[in-house]
């Protein structure tokens, strides 16, 4: 793998990207620009990668590095990709080792921009990004937040963990991040609801929110305008370019989803919505005593997925594609897939992702897999892999359906 580093203040974050990639077992060669070495010295990159660092084409000429690096790479990641670097890459310039490597690379190329908002929004940069994407380069969406000095806005380098996740996704599936959702608005729910018993305790579930966050992240980097309705999650950083709406309980999530979904192109219900909540909320902490506590009476929560489908059927909601998730366990008489088919029939959504849970499956883990069921009867397995890989598979199916309309 080649890690290109552009000459921006965010170059220091490339060190964390490099550390995470090498710790995952990848062989990484860092190729910075001369300007990047003004922010981070070559010794740092060499110590973290175990590989020599050079910027020009006249070092080790007998090994022809300006050609060999691109030819041998399985993936090229450029982080940060500055406005100047993307302009040179878009116009085929090869005036240093990094731009020469980009010209010879025939593997997936991921560019992760970082610059001030005005530079990102400038027409020249937008044209260069469009040109790179038209040639198959994956140009990620920058994050929003604090920039240099007192400035804030869009143009911040995404979290290193997010960059590494995108890199791993492209290694697993080179075609995983087309820019096919540009102009689309999607809503994704994530995480597990917590239904309060008293001011201290709650009823909850084991959902970490990772799958929903992966869905939002991948959709944003495929060009979508993404709203993430998030319940409680495992301290996950908000994905770059995604608007997050917090909704802790099932009733709060219902209200948020009904408000956000109208007019969206797709709604994906990946959250583990609580089926029940306590009938009443104790005003004070329930004290422990020698006597057994009173039984907790439960009442049903709204079925948000079914309500979204019904609202669309009644004409109260405009959304072409509604996707549900089914976290199931099988039993001696019924398989996980059987339960999934039954849920699809009940909910009447367009697509349903069926996951087998338990024994490390789906909840809390880094990987996922299962089956994708469609309302027209189509069924396809989702190969086991990262949750971002599952997200890409699902967005492929959603994009296909949106393209038919």
Automatic annotation (TrEMBL):
GO terms for molecular function: FMN binding; metal ion binding; phosphopantothenate--cysteine ligase activity; phosphopantothenoylcysteine decarboxylase activity. Gene3D superfamilies: CoaB-like, Flavin prenyltransferase-like. The keyword Transferase does not apply. Its cofactor is FMN; Mg(2+). Its EC number is 4.1.1.36, 6.3.2.5. It catalyses: (R)-4'-phosphopantothenate + L-cysteine + CTP = N-[(R)-4-phosphopantothenoyl]-L-cysteine + CMP + diphosphate + H(+); N-[(R)-4-phosphopantothenoyl]-L-cysteine + H(+) = (R)-4'-phosphopantetheine + CO2. One of its GO terms (cellular component) is phosphopantothenoylcysteine decarboxylase complex. Binds 1 FMN per subunit. It holds the Pfam family Flavoprotein. Keywords: Decarboxylase, Flavoprotein, FMN, Ligase, Lyase, Magnesium, Metal-binding, Multifunctional enzyme. Residues 186-405 are annotated as: Phosphopantothenate--cysteine ligase. Residues 1-185 are annotated as: Phosphopantothenoylcysteine decarboxylase. Pathway: Cofactor biosynthesis; coenzyme A biosynthesis; CoA from (R)-pantothenate: step 2/5; Cofactor biosynthesis; coenzyme A biosynthesis; CoA from (R)-pantothenate: step 3/5. In the N-terminal section; belongs to the HFCD (homo-oligomeric flavin containing Cys decarboxylase) superfamily. This is Coenzyme A biosynthesis bifunctional protein CoaBC.
